[in-house]
Amino acid sequence: MAVSKLSGELKNTPRDTSLVPCSVNGGLNREETLSDHHIVLTDNLGEENQLPVNREKQDLRVPVYVLNIRGQPLMPTTPRRAKLLLKEGKATVKERCPFTIQLTYATGENTQPIKLGVDIGFKNIGFSATTDKLEVISGTVTLRQDVSKKIEERRRYRRTRRARLGYRPPRFNNRKRPEGWLAPSIQHRYDSHIRLVNKLETLLPITYKKIEVANFDAHKIQHPEITGVAYQHGTLQGYEVKEYLLDKWKRKCAYCGKKDIPLQIEHIIPKSRGGTDRVSNLAIACKGCNLKKGNKTAEEFGYPTIQKQANKTLKATACLNNIRWKLVEQLGAEYTYGYVTKYERNKLGLEKSHVNDAFVIAGGTDQERCRPYEVIQVRRNNRAIQKNRKGFKPSIRRQRYQLQPHDLVTYDGKLYKVKGVFNYGKWVRLSDSNGAVVNATIKNVKLLKYGKGLLFTFKNH
Ligand SMILES: [Zn+2]
Q1: Are the CB atoms for 100 and 106 separated by under 8 Å?
Q2: What's the alpha-carbon Rg for the chain, to the nearest Å?
Q3: What rounded mean pLDDT belongs to the chain?
Q4: Between the chain's N and C termini, which has fewer beta carbons within 10 Å?
């Protein structure tokens, strides 16, 4: 039965086995067995009273996603209820991570509003969905950083290949980029956001989406130097002005040029000498420079150009913002600004992270949080057809082996991840969750799930 598929991702056996008062704790905590007896589902309902107030990450709730008989998402449930449904044969396992079940009978469809917040980024996407009381899913997607490198590699292979063809009439400058063309690395980012939201919409009946489009509202804060917008510490407008200034001074100290350190707002003409809070009198400085400058003006401090720079208005925003607005349109989402997120996050006392930002964007306040997923994107194939083969002729792959890296399989009653095949696809190399490597003949291995696209996991600790 489908229940037997359960054990893999949903093990919730305690990590520190010594705490379990059991003489056979080794057997109890063995994770990868497929028999029903070993299924331990995450369940916090009964544990509420026993747990200390300060919950560790692994003790956070893990909701189970539910699809109705037609495959449409319903409200998520608790692992305990999911286990019961599966036991009674009222549901089947649809997906293992994130754990999703599909009901085998028709039900009423009471859904509550679910708000999804997406924190767009260059390297990571944060996502979080909330109802009034609970956070129902959250996590971080790690975006691929190697797209342009791969494209360059493909181009190189292609060039070498075609250069060998001898005389060819010149063919260059013969294609046109279509309207709305994006660089492949940007296109990948754009597609990843769409893919993620589409995926989440298959798990949850999302009713409202919100995206952070920029750090500050460039239209609202137009020419703040002229209109006299002033910085007020701790206010919403103060946050917006700070984001504006950070962008304007390129997120580095205006005096020493240091990056990636805490930066402060600094008065070019000190307040004690009649300097105002207006944006044209503000720069960004590190703590050291700010202290050193003390009661001097920027000019006295030895930086006469700073004031001129401060009088200029920030020019148009970077290219990522284009895809941000495109996403808003494509997904039919609402939008918000980074300074609002930051303000709200600080008000809630949450630390800075992609998940927390997304939580705030989704309108999160005091909802009970859930365990965040780590999502990676796995390439299914290597498109560069010719590899450096150390003197041998290029290998051109004409067919694909039935198992590929990252596929989830069972072998000998245990769960494994495929590392690769060898011996012309007759043998397969597997690794278990502890990283131990096993070799097996391919016919003894059973495929559970292809390891392609968005891969949801929980962070190993
Ligand atoms: Zn500095």
Answers
A1: no
A2: 27
A3: 80
A4: C
Gap from CA of 245 to ligand 1 centroid (Å): 15
Q: What percent of the chain has pLDDT over 70?
A: 81
* Tens-digit pLDDT profile for residues 52-111: 334 444 578 899 999 999 999 999 999 999 999 999 999 999 988 899 999 999 987 788
Question: For 184-222, what is each residue's pLDDT tens digit?
Answer: 888 998 999 999 999 999 999 999 999 988 888 777 777
Q: How far is the CA of 179 from the centre of ligand 1 (A)?
A: 43
Q: What residues form DSSP beta bridges with 33? A: 414
Kindly give the distance from the C-alpha atom of residue 264 to the centroid of ligand 1, in angstroms, as a whole number: 10
**In 10 A of CB 33, how many CB atoms?**
15
Q: How far is the CA of 457 from the centre of ligand 1 (A)?
A: 40
Q: Give the Cβ contact number of residue 74 at 10 Å.
A: 20
How far apart CA 311 and CA 314 sit, in angstroms, is 10
Side-chain half-sphere of 195: how many Cα atoms within 13 Å? 16
Q: How far is CA 439 from CA 133, 265, 411, 429, 434, in A?
A: 47, 59, 10, 5, 15
Q: For residue 337, how far is its CA from the centre of ligand 1 (angstroms)?
A: 27
Asked whether 112 and 131 are in contact (CB, 8 A), the reply is yes
Q: What spacing in Å lies between the alpha carbon of 284 and ligand 1's midpoint?
A: 9
Q: Can you name the residues that pair with 375 across neighbouring β-strands? A: 141, 456
Distance of CA 8 to the CA centre of its chain: 23
